[in-house]
Amino acid sequence: MTTTTSTTTTASASDSAPLPEGLPPGPRTPAPFQLLGLLTRGRPFLRRNQERYGDLFTLRLTTLGTWVFPGTTDLIRTAFTAPADVLHTGESNLLEPILGPYSLLSTDRDQHLRQRRLLLPPFHGARMKAYEQLIEDITREEIAKWPVGEEFPVVPSTMKITLRAILGAVFGAEGATMQRLEELLPELVERGSRMSMVPYLHYDLGRFSPWGRFVRLRREVDATLDTLIDEARRDPDVAERGDVLALLVQARYDDGEPMGNHEIRDQLVTMLAAGHETTANTLGWAVERLTRHPEVLARVVQAVDEGDSEYLAATVREIQRVRPVIMFTTRLVKQPFELGGYVLPPGTRIALGGAITHYDERLFPNARELRPERFVGVKPGTYSWLPFGGGVRRCIGAAFAHMEMEVVLRTMLETYELIPTTDRPERMAFRGVAHAPGRGGRVTVRPRASAPAAASVVRETATA
User: Domain 31-463 belongs to what topology?
Assistant: First the structure.
């Protein structure tokens, strides 16, 4: 592997001489074993390579190509702020065949910016605040079914909560349509997550082949979504609705053109994929981590009882740090790009995420410990805390997801006492896209005597 002595500091080269290209060091084991190590060992595998090869190293991953992993905030900042014509995100996204070509995660440059302008408003301000009561109601309905005094996995419940929240707040679905989507979408997410990691199997060989089953399922989902979209377009009161779909059918690009059904379908499926499984698994990790740290659990329960939203928010951020469900996002090098003294050739993928930075003692002292206090009164670092990616491509639903996790966790802690456990930590199980608690976030609960009065007063005052 060749390093470079070029003094180029940006991805643009001088016209007088070509840029020398090279890759950072990395393991020399066969590519299949490197891919296996990443998929099965994840964070420990990456940390070992960082310790051995430094803060910029290369992995060669069978079927996925050559990947470079930056491990410092300066290197990550350089990649996140690179020009859009030099590093692409949509083109490098393994989920593009799953989510569709019009997904916000699948597009680049001008098309991405056009879409982003239309999709940002529903996830900010007073409109997002209106979703809180919906999510609390969904949570209370689901957790009322929890068995008392016996251990059970919490993730199946959080999956139902986040799915219904998205169907209500984003899709605006109800009645028979909601019921049908509740049947179709979990299977779509599960199959899509697994198929994203095996692009060489993306061939429709009939309805019994893996890709064939997914394609037919996606067609059925699209047909149901078309019905939902057409109903929204015909709704005379659509302007009064608060769901995201209602906003999308009314939205217009700068040239006055509306979004087509094909675009809206891909965006709805993207919001589902980005906000359903990831949020549900983070909530599962919250239960798993808190029941193994009784002192933190006691403190966050006290915060909920006292209406201390700052400590609750800090706890959610710390859970996302210690158990990131998405290990990294990627950028595809389109033009020779200098990073950390190496000029990466086109075709290289750059992996950016918390799989490395979240456990770096230089960034988070005592990184292995669960310490919500580190985020009390402190804004997470833009290039060190990365559960939602970064740069201009940062997840547009980050604020919605964070609000949802706070509401669900708060409602759980107001309703039940989570019983601490001395069981070993659950392993991080890779589900194709997200890393979930290996045993589903098992927990035992007891009802609390009554809902905390202080927290209720605080919320009522805030709402008023």
Answer: Cytochrome p450 (1.10.630)
C-alpha distances out from residue 320 to 125, 399, 452, Å? 23, 14, 26
Domain segments of the chain as ranges: 31-463
The size of the chain, in residues, is 464
Say which DSSP state 424 is in. Answer: P
Distance CA 279, CA 377 (A): 24
How many CA atoms within 13 Å lie on the side-chain side of 24?
Answer: 25
Burial degree of 256 (CB within 10 A; 0-12, 13-18, 19+): exposed
- Span 209-219, pLDDT tens digits: 999 999 999 99
Q: Which position has the higher pLDDT, 408 or 64?
A: 408
Tokens of 404: 């949802």
Report the percentage of the chain scoring pLDDT > 90. 59
SS3 211: helix
Q: Is the Cα dihedral 225, 229, 234, 235 positive or negative?
A: positive
β-pairing verdict for 329-333 and 87-88: antiparallel
Q: What is the pLDDT of residues 212-257, one digit of tens each?
A: 999 999 999 999 999 999 999 999 999 888 888 998 899 888 888 8
Give the pLDDT confidence score for residue 462 in this predicted structure.
45
Token pair belonging to 263: 């675009």
Q: What is the pTM of this model?
A: 0.88
Q: Does residue 94 carry a pLDDT above 90?
A: no
